[in-house]
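The records we work with from here on pair a chain with its fold. Here is one such record, which you should read through line by line:
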Amino acid sequence: MMKKSTHNQISLPFFPMGILLLPGEKAPLRIFEPRYKQLIAECQEQSVTFGVPYIRHRQITDMGSEVKLNKVLRIFENGEMIVVIEGISLFRILDYQKEIPGKLYGGGEVEILSPDRVVRDPGILTLAEELGLLQDTRAEEKQKIGLLELAGKLNMNASDKLHLIMLEEPARKEKFITGLLLLEKTIRKQKKTIGENVQLN
């Protein structure tokens, strides 16, 4: 299993997919290819992380997520598995090897992007509270929640996540997230109104 570190550059095994996981965000996966069975088995044995290069329009982009194996939900008789992975950090790919000597899977060098920044706009936290996004977050942790961690609770699509990541200024990230929160609030209000109208009829 490859995992060496030099400042913010590390070497990771790769499992390219059409998903982009933000820190703290989880996703289920069905593992059936021999190369990824090998990778997951090594993650179980060694408690190491791997990289998920983001595939967009059938092309591997230079962005991706470092993830860890959160849990194994089921193992089938043929060796296939259903697992849950969890995002740890985001990275930019520096070098991609389709094959790693002695392994079935590929990997490469990545640059870990800057750590998540704490939400500074209290209005964002207020909106998140109203939408029930922080109900599983302890009170002392709410004031320390990061922008990307909060964004991960919004069920964003991969394109919106990529747009958010590419925004370099924290203020622009907060403005973008505020827009998504307000949109979600409007959608929920409209659904409630429609439901009430249906009941009246």
In short: The first strand starts at residue 5 and ends at 6. Residues 122-194 form one domain.
